[in-house]
Amino acid sequence: MAQRYVRVQAQTGQLHYGLLRPDRTVQVLDAPPWLQGQPTAVEISPGGYSLLAPCAPSKVVAVGKNYAEHAAEMGTAAPPEPLLFIKPSTAVTAAGAPIYYPSQATQVDYEGELAVVIGDRCAHVPLEEARAKIWGYTIANDVTARDLQKRDGQWTRAKGFDSFCPLGPWIVRELGPGAKLQTFLNDQKIPVQSALVEEMTYSPDYLVAYISEIMTLLPGDVILTGTPAGVGPLTVGDQVRVEIEGIGVLENPVALRPS
User: Fold this and answer.
1) Band of the pLDDT at 75, cuts 50, 70, 90?
2) What are the structural domain ranges in the chain?
3) CATH, domain range 60-255
4) Are 175 and 134 spatial neighbours (Cβ–Cβ below 8 Å)?
């Protein structure tokens, strides 16, 4: 099993990065792993922490319509260059945490995605050096208020609600190109989304190089690499699960925000 890097909150309230062992014990690191964090002698037992999103990015840069079949289901051709938008860092939430259905929206869609975690400062990175800037991979759900996206004509509100970027449950260092991405609703056995990550139009390496020509990427920042075909609506009470081979499972319930 690949090493799983997590971010947790201990019962004391302290935040830690760590390595998740098979027995769910967390070995604490002395810094974020992409900042050369090293294992310490401190361990947290399985009942002694809450799992958080595995990083706290300064920004989440997302890519729209990066699978040709998804672009087609949205009624367009694949973009001639990456189509970028930003989700605020406050949209990030953990595996198991609720996706809150906003009162302003009437259609909220799931979008299962592969997420790339940046390991080094990136500005004007040549394509041949981009792979070395990727520290690891995790799973994301680019939750979208589809009706607001269509109404606004731009995507900030539709993509930016608190809890609209579930991320996790952990980060792995490597991912095979044949890894399959699948999304499931409510424990159904047939996925609503299924594709190989290698089917994306613009590869993670290309996206790192391309984005770094526009904005500086910082260690711990996240790139969402796009969703395959099969996006669809969520309702309050649903459970949405995104699986990527070689990483794991990101599952979240859909709920109304407590008043």
Assistant:
1) confident
2) 4-51, 60-255
3) 3.90.850.10
4) no
Structure tokens, 243? 């699986």
pLDDT recorded at residue 68: 77
At residue 187 the predicted structure's pLDDT band, cuts being 50, 70 and 90, is confident
pTM above 0.90, yes or no: yes
Residue 37 to residue 62: CA distance in whole angstroms: 27
C-alpha separations of 170 from 36, 83, 87, 166, 201 in Å: 17, 26, 20, 12, 25
Q: Given this structure, which CATH class describes domain 4-51? A: mainly beta
In this structure, the chain runs to a length of 259
C-beta of residue 222 within 8 angstroms of C-beta of residue 118: yes
Residues 6+ apart with CB under 8 A from 25: 43, 44, 45, 46
What is the four-CA torsion angle of 124, 125, 127, 133, rounded to 10 degrees?
-150
Residues 61 and 155: their CA atoms lie apart, in Å, by 13
* DSSP output for 130-183: HGGGEEEEEEEE--EEHHHHHHHSSSHHHHHSTT-EEEEEEEES---TT-EEEE
CA distance 33 to 17: 7
